[in-house]
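Hello Y.,

Per our agreement to keep a running log of every chain we model this quarter, I'm adding this entry. I've kept the format consistent with earlier entries: sequence first, then predicted structure.
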Amino acid sequence: MNDYLSPLIASFVDWTRLMGDHLSPLVASFVDNMALPYGIWPVLYAVAQLLYLAGFLVILYFLTRKVNWVDSSETSRISPEQMPQIVLAYPVLREDENTMHTTMVALSRIDYPRSKYRIIAIPNSDDTDTIAALRRLQVEFPFLEIMEVPSTRDPSWNVVWQAWEDNPKAYWFHENSTKGVKDLPPKKTRQLIYLFYTLVAREGTDWVLDYIDADSIMPPDHFKLAAVGLQEYDVLQSTNVAGNLLDTLPASLHAFDHMCWDGNIYPHMSANGKHPFYILGKGLFCKAKDLFDLGCFNPWVTIEDPEVGLRLWTNGKRLGIIAEPLIEEVPCTFRHGIIQRNRWICGFFQSLSKALKQMGMRFRYRQLARLNLVPTLTMPVNIIGLPTGIYALYLFITGSSIFPLWIAVLSLINICLYLLVMGQIYSKIWKRTRVVLKSISSRLWYMIRINPLIIFLYYLLWTIPIVIGFSMYVAGKGKVWIRTEKADADRCFVLYEPRTQYEATPRNQGKDFVKL
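Predicted structure for the entry above:
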């Protein structure tokens, strides 16, 4: 546990060293003028308002960064000679065959020279049901290759151990409790590592890695957009949008996370290369040589996305954003959504602690990197912000307010910032719903379902995965792949005739869609 707590303490020391001299007089004045005369409730209200302000300022910081978009208009002009060899990795674990079939249909429509891409599924060798399903899919989709990932005791892993031994940037293989450890956790990252080094040993590094989730549906020009973007940027990331956003209320709220962050705030992390970025874990493109030079993926973090992105940035790589989104499936229950988000939070804590120093990131940039998690960590502020806000409103209405002028001004500023930020978010979400919802009525219904009151309560719910994810981080858990349950909820976006026709069910009957 000390391995996990010590970097957290170090991070706290970093912040206190940075802020302590400026905040201590303010804190002393606050205690003298409010905490002692009026008790705990006004203090809690003031603390909540200060935390809200910090969260809003961080969001505004991101929204004012320049986005480095990939120019989609160039896809019609790029020549075959400019199109790189692309390997799309398809990591799967106990997947539903219908879900994989939907993704294969989307992949079959890729508009890219057939000789310049490969699609390789990478199941674990002991996942016999998934392997059998993939072999059945090969009959219909002959472009699909299968590379079974054996136990790390298999001699074929020697190419990985040797590459890491020779590369000090694979810091996990050279330091601390994971030094020289070859018994890698059985999860998606291990599958990607095996595929990557196996291909490098056979074919070198003159190719580009892309990987997706089992349920991802990409646009036909997905690879061409990468070919255009890689002319200017080192790493590319596609945005995401949920296709089943109207299935249930939990699905609508989970889709809001992607609408609000992946398609709105996240692209600003490209920032002309000036802000430490992470990647989203699907629909990304990375040059094999760059990944090889960095030691590939760190197998000891719960999710590979934040750590490898930050390592790429630390080594001078620039991020470009592909606006055309992947369509994905979000959990339809709060339980499955919380399980998924537990792992996200744990992975970010792991990536933003001692890993930043180990990858060589300087002090100033470590603080910038940690801003990536601040908007999420401010969600539990609602636990104290809601009751104390009601308390403050009651005092205001009854004319018995005890707050000094600066807190009243702070509250007014937060209200204005809330209206500004949420107005921008809802405007972007309204536009992005056009990707997956055909009619105005469906789009309006979704906006009603994610009204500000519901979102406020949903952010209270986010406290659960934040607490569980942090406890997982402290306890050193999260090493085993816990897959997010998929239900083939997005089949309507491919409507593939040669297979069984898409059938209306109580869940999807009448659902609007736009055909890719």
